[in-house]
Design goal:
182 residues; alpha/beta; seven-stranded mixed sheet; two-stranded antiparallel sheet; 34% helix; globular
């Protein structure tokens, strides 16, 4: 397994981003936090600042095995405008590599047409951006190489579903036991 890249923009949803980064690191994955803004310090929707590992303009993503987009607004809208990220997502879709997005962020995938014919979920009222998707309203959906999550409340299930996709059920069970997840 190479590296999981988590993309940050001002207004990101802290619970979603930090839960995923934490769980993936507990699972032994190399996780890089990437800013899509000019500054490498990005501030969440609830005023929590984070220092990212790198900036999208100086990453080449040669070792990328997973791309993850946390939700939150206006963070997800900023992710949607990031040309480097959009190109990376299209390449990942073409190569059938794992892509994950939660809350408002599945709209980025939907606008790129990556959810057509797939089961997906997102924050209520963002379904309109999930072009051609079968929007289920479930907390988490995994369809092929794409995992989508509904909201901050689904952050742990979302993170564990990503681990299941990449590392399998045994690793998920190990993490659940270590973190006392029911």
């Amino acid at each position: 397994m190479g590296t999981a890249y988590v993309f940050f923009a001002d207004g990101f949803e802290e619970i979603e981003a930090f839960t995923c980064v934490d769980v993936m690191r507990r699972a032994g994955l190399n996780v890089e936090m990437v800013s899509v803004t000019p500054d490498e310090i990005v501030t969440g929707a609830h005023d929590v600042p984070v220092l990212c590992d790198c900036n999208v303009v100086n990453c080449d993503f040669f070792d990328a095995d997973l791309v993850l987009l946390p939700g939150g607004m206006p963070g997800a809208a900023t992710l949607d405008k990031c040309e480097e990220l959009r190109k990376l997502l299209l390449r990942f879709a073409e190569e059938q590599k794992p892509i994950a997005a939660i809350c408002a962020a599945p709209m980025v995938l939907g606008k790129l047409g990556l959810l057509k014919g797939k089961k997906a979920t997102c924050y209520p009222d963002f379904e309109q951006y999930l072009e051609g998707a079968d929007c289920t309203g479930a907390p988490v959906e995994k369809d092929g190489n794409i995992v989508t999550g509904k909201s901050p409340a689904a952050a742990m299930e979302f993170a564990l579903t990503i681990i299941d996709l990449i590392l399998g059920k045994e690793k998920v069970q190990e993490l659940k036991e270590a973190m006392c997840v029911e």
